[in-house]
Amino acid sequence: MKFEFTQFYSSNASVLKYLAKFTFLNNHFLILFFELMLFNSFPIQYNEPLFRPPSEAESLILQVTYGCSWNKCAFCEMYSSKSFKIRNEEEIIKDINSTAHAYQGIRKIFLADGNPMILATKKILPILYAIKNTFPKVRRVSTYALPRDILSKSLEELKTLREAGLNLIYIGIESGDDELLLKINKGETYNSTVDGLFKAKEAGIKLSVIIINGLGGTEYSDQHAINSAKILNEIQPEFASALVLSFPFGTEHFKKRFNGNFIPMNIIDLFKEMKTFISYSDLKSTIFRSNHASNYLVLSGILSRDKQQFIDQINNAINNPETAGLREEWQRGL
Question: What is the mean pLDDT of residues 228-248?
Answer without folding.
Answer: 97
